[in-house]
Target: Xylanolytic transcriptional activator regulatory domain-containing protein
Amino acid sequence: GPGFFLSLCSRSGIRWVTEKTGAPDFEGLAANLVSDLSQLFRPHAKFDQQRTAEPDEATAWLYTDAYFSETSHGFLSVIPRQWFEGKLRLHFSKLRSNSFSDTTGWYAMRNTIYAAGSRLLLAKRNRPNAFREAVIQGNSYFQNALSVQSDLILVENSRVAVQALALMATYTEAVSWLSLNYSLGTNAMRLAETKGLHRQPPPLSRLPKEELELRSQIWWIIYCCDRHCAARFGRPVGTDDDCITVQLPVNSKHDRFYDYEILSWSVRNAQITSSIAKRLNQIEQKTPSTDDIINCMNELNELLGELQKKSPVHVSLDSSQLSTSNPLGVPTASILFLVSSYHISVIQVHSILVYPWNIARLGLNTTQKIHLRSQMAESSRRCIESARVIIQKLSGVTITPSTPKWCAFFFPLTALVNMFVHVLQHPDEESVESDIALMRVVAGHFNYLEYIILELSFPMTRDLANLAQAAVYRARSGTGHTLDHITMSDTIINLQNIENLEQLSV
Model:
């Protein structure tokens, strides 16, 4: 997609950066980033089919309470707490009376709750290895759920199976499980379609109000996950918006009002994200006139304005500051999601007239570029301002095993690439030094991630800040020397990695 940060590593992106910086090794750095990400976000081995013993009743209730009370993204929970606790109570009652019979959906669901709850609970212990122990314990229960994934899709075909798959997708959204969220989310959406959850039942169905509301909640949470995941990876979305008729979610199925408020806004944001991708696709598939481009930008800016006006009253989308006392007890992570998602949408819209490789794809001639000069300047301003807000919000990010990948990886990387492009395009701006300082904030953020999660490696986040600094010096000194001293690695990279971005879709 136009705003996808890895577009920097495309052939035209590499060519532009090399021309701007004179850095002879940027092609290798870009290949490194693609290679690191493609290796990181896909499975490397078969999953362990040996199942972990489930917790005893007292521990199961501890994990359940932790999941429902402490999860930072409760608005994305497809399981009402009261319903689950009633089912868990019955589960242990039947176990005690030796009258228990299991189903695949219920097995996967409760084990994913155990996984998420134990991960939250164990990570809080004051122990040197608390992070690692929480990951190991949580993932062992999650392996139980994964062991029945095929049965969920092919055999059970129930609404509980849909909920279980969606719950599994949200579990893998965290940094402690680096792959599968796109695949699981896609499977959840397809199975939900087969159950008709995307369609509003006709009045003659006479379904109870509570049933209609739960169907709506499940569908729209799956929809949000699908749209945001597709936008991050530049992948196709699932069900077409024109095929969806189910009512928007209402409040009664949420334990906390702010979860409903955040979900409602997130659904609208996801719908707009989908509209943006579709509209930009239409523009890119033809040779647009300047009027086509201006009309497109005006339409999309109207959508962004609508999204901003409808944001929850306790959230300021333009502020780079995080409130220390969030009203109603709204988790900081939920506010980060709202703010960063909005600014990612801004970047998605405006990067088409900011990234040089995107502009080249539009096939604009010199006259058209002159005609669009004011729009391109406005798009540049919007992109850099959004990037600054996202990076400044990093101060509110706490890395735990349950921290979402959008918060830890994708949003900061998108902001970093935008800032890098802006600095190279405008090396004489007064804000350049502070922008490079913000780039180093992102590099520090990824340094900490590498420290706490040993499997991670993002050296290019440091390389981009150093390269931007050297490029500014080169531009201001008026020299045309290549930046030999910026070389970060002598490793020879197979550049086929650049052409294999589809590996990131798992």
Remarks:
- The chain has 19 helices and no strands.
- The chain has a mean pLDDT of 85.
- The chain has two domains: 5-43+254-505, 57-246.
